[in-house]
Here is the input.
Amino acid sequence: AYPELAAEFKRRVAGELPANWAQESQAFIEKLQANPASIASRKASQNAIEAYAHILPEFLGGSADLAGSNLTLWSGSRPIRAKENQDGNYINYGVREFGMSAIMNGIALHGGFIPYGATFLMFYEYAHNAVRMAALMKQRSLFVYTHDSIGLGEDGPTHQPVEQTAALRLIPNLETWRPADQVESAIAWQQAVERKEGPSALIFTRQNLPQLDRTSVQLDNVKRGGYIVRECCEKGNCPDLILIATGSEVELAIKAAEALDAEGVKVRVVSMPSTNRFDKQDAAYRESVLPSNVTKRVAIEAQISDFWYKYVGLEGRIVGMNTFGESAPADQLFKLFGFTVENVVAKAKEIL
Here is the structure.
């Protein structure tokens, strides 16, 4: 009796995306690249939700009592209530990260919806078991984590994640993204939505991030998890050094590369928003980004250092965290813990 509704029901229960999804989501990404903006990636995440939710009626959002900070509400959000608005699309989960994540898994198992739920990255600790179960059950649960590093500032070490990003990356069948600007953020959302075989963790900053320049090829390569964002020389001439960074530290890597370039050092910068996705690429692509004959490498990330040895080798250098954070404004903390051009250059010169 209602063929259009029936078709929509069948589509959603099958977990298929709308016919216009690929075209519309790509158009949004290309529009962002053509209109640079320096915004926090948590705001870029909200902008992506706003754009994609209009295409995806199956989006069922929520937050663990932090929507004002996580920026997970969009213009069409309607809170679900027991007595009214039962046809809403947003759940106020309260301060219960594990409950939220487990409920999201149940929603995904039911079908017909793509659930996303958010909290601060530090509070992922409360939800670990449910996140692990999402990966084990291969469910499309989208876990959104903001305030991703010491960059959140004055709340101090209790709220500043250090080892959590590495922990998420190590969960089998979970794809973790830590984007460097609004474009990488939109692509992270796009790829998480399209991934039917498991959950994704999307990690965003509190602080503003400048937008990176990209060619169309670089834009396409973002979805491969790691790509060359700054090349140093003509094709065929290997760089002297590779800097690898994610999130808010990509800008720092580029500035350090420019400083080293002024001293005659050929530096390639690799942005790696998703190590999980990069590791799944074919050997030829991975070799083109991180050639095995270029052993002088420095990784830069305001997260635990140990994770990065798999990419820089035991002789490489890492500008990362080896302690808990401190309570101070973000710029002071980044300087205190060595996330400066001078320190990255110094680390690079140790191995050059």
Notes: The chain has 15 helices and 13 strands.
